[in-house]
Amino acid sequence: MSLPAELEQLAAPALLEWALGRYGNRFAISTSFQNEGMVMVDMAARINNQVRVFTIDTGRLPEETYALIDEVRARYGIAVEIVFPDHGEVERMTSRHGVNLFYQEVAFRKLCCHVRKVRPLERKLEGMDAWAVGLRREQSPERAQVKKVEELDGRVKLSPLADWTRQQVEEHLLRYQVPRHALEAKGYPSIGCAPCTRAVQPGESERAGRWWWEQDGSKECGLHITPTGEMRRQLDVLVEEILIDH
Ligand code: SF4
After folding, report:
1. Could you tell me the end-to-end alpha-carbon distance of the chain, in angstroms, rounded to an integer?
2. Pocket around ligand 1 at a 6 A CB cut-off
3. pLDDT of the chain along its 246 residues, tens only?
4. Whose CA is closest to 207, among 197, 195, 194?
5. Which residues have a Cβ under 8 Å from the Cβ of 172 and sit 6 or more positions away?
6. Within the chain, what is the greatest distance between any pair of CA atoms?
7. Which of these, 181, 160, 158, 172, lies nearest to 32 by C-alpha position?
């Protein structure tokens, strides 16, 4: 697969239009319904209201996220596809390490994210050629190099908002009266699972409320940036135990 280099220069609506035209039903937006995801859903629905949208329901989402999923369904007429983790993997992980294993150590937290997010995403992507996510380079040092278009394992991953500022996101939401996540107004600029997200204090970074108890490790779940080195090795061992521990 060879993609034109010019795609990297396309503005977000043009890139989404290109993906919808090229991949049709084998393209989808992946979102956890934060502001960036909502901008993409709104933008894509204006181009083609048949756009597919999916979300990973980890089983630990805040109630406000479920409310927003229903709002998206009603507002845009989109049947949001819900992706669950494998129940056997979750059962084995929580029976072995506890339901709140993520507070114990970083490797357990990465395991939980891997089982509840990364593996379900991998399964979902098996039926697709391309997907779009709401990453912005401004969000964190780890995301500063995000490309708008990249090829991963034979699929195309799009980050149409990679070069957007927070202000641009805000302007789109206001201009089109896009529904917003209710936790945002309570001081949550970044929202994930309920036990792993808190409000941020003035002056803190956007992602400071994610896994706030961790002093080391990146503020990433593995969906976009894969662990490396010793953390990768630890994670591989823990995942293997879950997969074979029948
Ligand atoms: S964010 Fe927390 S609860 Fe959600 S998958 Fe990751 S560790 Fe598990």
Report:
1. 39
2. 58, 60, 102, 109, 112-113, 116-117, 192-193, 195-196, 221
3. 678 889 999 999 999 999 999 999 999 999 999 999 999 999 999 999 999 999 999 999 999 999 999 999 999 999 999 999 999 999 999 999 999 999 999 999 999 999 999 999 999 999 899 999 999 999 878 888 999 999 998 999 999 999 999 999 999 999 999 999 999 999 998 899 999 999 998 888 888 888 888 876 566 666 767 777 888 889 999 999 988 855
4. 197
5. 39, 42, 43, 178
6. 52
7. 181
Q: Do 119 and 91 meet the contact criterion of CB atoms below 8 Å apart?
A: no
Q: Could you give phi then psi for residue 32, rounded to 5 degrees?
A: -105, 15
Cα–Cα distance, 227 to 231 (Å, whole number): 6
* Number of residues written out for the chain: 246
Write out the catalytic residue numbers.
221
Architecture of domain 5-244: 3-Layer(aba) Sandwich (3.40)
The upper half-sphere exposure of residue 157, i.e. CA atoms within 13 Å in the direction of its Cβ, equals 18
Strands 155-158 and 149-152: antiparallel
Ligand 1 atom, smallest distance to 102 CA: 7
d(CA 118, CA 195): 18
User: Which tokens belong to 177?
Assistant: 């009266």
